[in-house]
Design a protein that fits this description.
Blueprint lengths: L1 E4 L7 H12 L4 E4 L4 E4 L5 H11 L8 E3 L3 H7 L4 H10 L4 E11 L2 E6 L5 H10 L3 E5 L21 E4 L10 E4 L6 E4 L3 E3 L5 E3 L3
Parallel strand pairs: 1-8, 2-8, 4-6, 5-9
Antiparallel strand pairs: 2-3, 3-7, 4-7, 5-6, 9-10, 11-12
Helix pairs in contact: 1-5
């Protein structure tokens, strides 16, 4: 396990390229996001995803949300209705995860959670990697999210990008927009008000 310090406001490309190499090799990278530290692996690497499930203590039935390399990639691979398109324009990047239907079903998976964090490290990492990565909180299942690297040491990811202590913020809201009706799976920083309009809390 390696630990590399990185600036959240101006992330060093060379450090991120080291993280990209870890991802290409099937490793797990812990990195800051706009809500807490997350764990990233190459979504297309079955062995890496299985390794991540073991680290978190979850089964194959537990879905992972992904960070896409670009919004264009999302449009190319998912079906976005008018509501979904409006939400991405208003809340991406930010703490909103959308469950979207895939254009082409992969391994019988018809939908997937997608989010673009409001975090320069996350965004630059996935752009340099060029393919989607997982975004899941850096903790074992059922435990609290990590906001500083002291909480990550016991997890032993292959690489930790140390962006310092993160402010404690609400988790991302998870909204299923894959069907006719919107379904709130988890309410976080983006709140659903009675009129059905989305608004973001301060902080």
């Amino acid at each position: 396990m390696r630990i590399l310090k990185i600036s959240r406001s101006n992330p060093n490309s060379q450090i991120l390229l080291e993280a990209v190499n870890v991802l290409h090799a099937g490793g797990i990278v812990a990195h800051p996001t706009d809500t807490c530290y997350g764990l990233a692996v190459d979504v297309g690497n079955f062995v890496a995803v299985k390794k991540l499930r073991k680290l978190k203590g979850i089964t194959d039935a537990h879905p992972f949300t992904i960070i896409p390399p670009t919004k264009k990639w999302v449009l190319e691979n998912f079906v976005l209705n008018l509501v979904a398109r409006n939400l991405t324009r208003k809340f991406w990047p930010g703490p909103l995860t959308l469950i979207l239907p895939l254009k082409q079903s992969k391994n019988k998976i018809k939908t997937c959670g997608v989010r673009i964090p409001d975090c320069k490290i996350s965004q630059k990492l996935v752009r340099l990697f060029g393919q989607p990565i997982t975004t899941t909180s850096a903790n074992r299942h059922g435990e609290k999210e990590a906001h500083e690297i002291s909480s990550l040491i016991s997890l032993k990811p292959d690489l930790i990008l140390d962006g310092g202590k993160l402010p404690i913020r609400p988790t991302s809201t998870i909204l299923d927009v894959s069907g006719k009706d919107l379904k709130i799976l988890r309410e976080g920083k983006v709140k659903i008000i009675k009129s059905g309009i989305m608004e973001k809390m301060g902080g």
